[in-house]
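Here we describe the complex-level prediction in full. Unlike the single-chain runs in Section 2.1, the three entities below were treated as one system.
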Amino acid sequence: MKNQFFRLTIATPDGRFVARYSAKGLAELDFPNSEALVAPKRSEGGAAERASPRAAEANGIPAKIRAWHRATESALKNILAGTEPRNFPPLDPSGTVFQQAVWREMRKIPFGRTKSYGEVAQAIDRPKAVRAVGGACGANPIPILVPCHRVLAAHGKIGGFGGGLGWKRKLLTREGVIL
DNA sequence: CATCAAAAACTCC
DNA sequence: GGAGTTTTTGATG
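The structure predicted for the assembly as a whole is:
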């Protein structure tokens, strides 16, 4: 795929996240530390890495993307602060049909609530695919905004988390979830 | 390109 | 603790 992704960063009290945008919306979000990349000097709100050949659009970032990024930043910071975000950017994660179904289902989990892998599996009409649901969660390219951290194992166990279990615990605690 | 085998953020007995 | 299910991914022919 000839991704002409736009990569921007979001500075939070928990580190700097990296967001990538496709032409349709937010495609990926990475935790801090997951990738060591050099700070682009002094750009604060974010910097485009792959600007188009022509600097037709200001700073190489279309207004559309900047608007999405603003929503992403706001939503992310809200969740990190333990408050419910109001507006989301459009999401465009790439994955198999099954994975998209799982992610879509996860997005329906209300703020501060949790579901088990089994419940998600039932919701997408594959009650026995609980193991596969776990796999789809791990493949989620947009953590936090797609609340994979709100999915726990059965019997209140925490399960796992791609970006490190520490994150999962912290996020749940801030949302007021009691394990 | 078609098939096989192994692994995974699970669940239930 | 062990077996059962489903999907994804990488190796094999």
